Known about the structure:
Strand 2 (53-60), helix 3 (69-92) and strand 3 (96-103) form a beta-alpha-beta unit. It is built from seven helices and five strands; from the N terminus they run H-E-H-E-H-E-H-E-H-H-E-H. The two termini are 25 Å apart. The protein has one domain (21-187): Rossmann fold (3-Layer(aba) Sandwich), CATH 3.40.50.620. The chain is α/β, with parallel strands linked by helices. Helix 1 (5-18) packs across helix 7 and helix 4 runs parallel beside helix 6 (140-147). Helix content is 45%, strand content 18%.
Amino acid sequence: MCIPLSVKLRVLSSACESGVVPTMKILLAIDSSAASEVALNEVAVRPWPPGTTVEVLGVVDPSHFLDVPQLVEKVTQRTEELVQRAAERLGASGIEATPLVLSGDPKAVIVDRAGPMNADFVVVGAHGSTGIQRFLLGSVARAVVRFSPCSVEVVRARMREAGGRRGMKVLLATDGSECSLKGACSLA
Length: 188
């Protein structure tokens, strides 16, 4: 039996309003890029279900520093400061946030962290690298989308360039599950 979309949307809307939807656990992976700033802003302004928690993750990749311990230590310290500021900013928006810094390949660390924390949603910024750069370095966002155990949103800086918040086109596919309901409510 095919249920009309308008009926499904009314059901999702009433579930969101009645508070039936469980809280969400969000993993926000950031670095010092403009794309991460846009991702942070997006998480801060979105109307999440009450009780939603965000883990702000910064990843230090020591392979980029040619085994210079002082440099790795300095980058780790700056990353700790970055995720702390981001968590405080989310807290000021009324979102409970916890900072965390881990070491390793960002692609693997982000995906590996989403599982143990039981993340419902991962948010990452897209740097927009193309061509040879993407081929040689790979795309963290692409790897997270491909291998994450939960839904992923890739936030692109160019969506916000024209000044302020613009409307978005969103394709939302649902299967009626609790996770789909959580995703729909985060967009409602």
